[in-house]
Design a protein that fits this description.
It holds the Pfam family TetR_N. The chain is mainly α. The protein has helices at residues 3-30, 33-40, 44-51, 54-77, 84-100, 102-110, 115-138, 144-165, 170-179.
């Protein structure tokens, strides 16, 4: 990468990081192009050069947030054999990150009306279900793919419940864990 490309990558990254910070304070309605470029001290043209549109920027924010989140989840699940404990480790990491970054999570939920974001959510959910499928296979579920899809939906709903409460919901987390008990027990 040459100096110009390196500078462009740093500017793009700074715009994304700035948006993640700003999202905590102002939400989707306040996350305007003007607010972003003012916060970072760059020209409006710089923003459009890197993202093309506000929707393109929201997509980049979504990807960055979830890429970071995915890394945290993978770290929490590393070394844990497929099954209940691995699912619970990944779920706890997800829920904690969503609580920690509540403003960003709320902004991204609001942004789901954007077609680009909706498509990204569907693709990421499909990916996450594929990651969870071996866990449901290890649990002996007769329909592991479908169980994984439902699990991803339940975790997202749990994150919403905690987001609205502004805190951990132990009973919600316990209900998730109960879902993973042996079918006999």
């Amino acid at each position: 990468m040459n100096l110009r490309q390196d500078a462009a990558a740093r500017t793009r990254s700074a715009l994304i990081d700035s948006g993640l910070r700003l999202a905590e304070r102002v939400g989707l309605a306040g996350l305007s192009v003007n607010a972003l470029v003012e916060e970072l001290g760059v020209a409006k043209g710089t923003f459009f050069h890197h993202f093309g549109s506000r929707a393109g920027y929201l997509l980049a924010l979504h990807r960055e947030f979830h890429d970071r989140l995915e890394a945290e989840i993978a770290a929490a699940m590393a070394g844990v054999a497929p099954g209940r404990e691995r699912l619970l480790a990944g779920t706890a990491a997800y829920l904690e990150a969503c609580l920690r970054d509540r403003g960003v999570k709320a902004l991204l939920l609001e942004a789901r009306a954007e077609p680009l974001i909706a498509d990204e959510v569907n693709a990421r959910n499909a990916h996450n279900a594929a990651v969870a499928r071996p866990d449901f296979e290890a649990l002996g579920r007769p329909h592991p793919h479908e169980a994984a899809q439902l699990w991803i939906g339940m975790i997202a709903e749990a994150a919403l419940l905690e987001l609205h409460a502004g805190r951990r919901r132990p009973a919600v987390r316990a209900a998730l864990a109960d879902y993973l008990h042996d079918r006999e027990g």
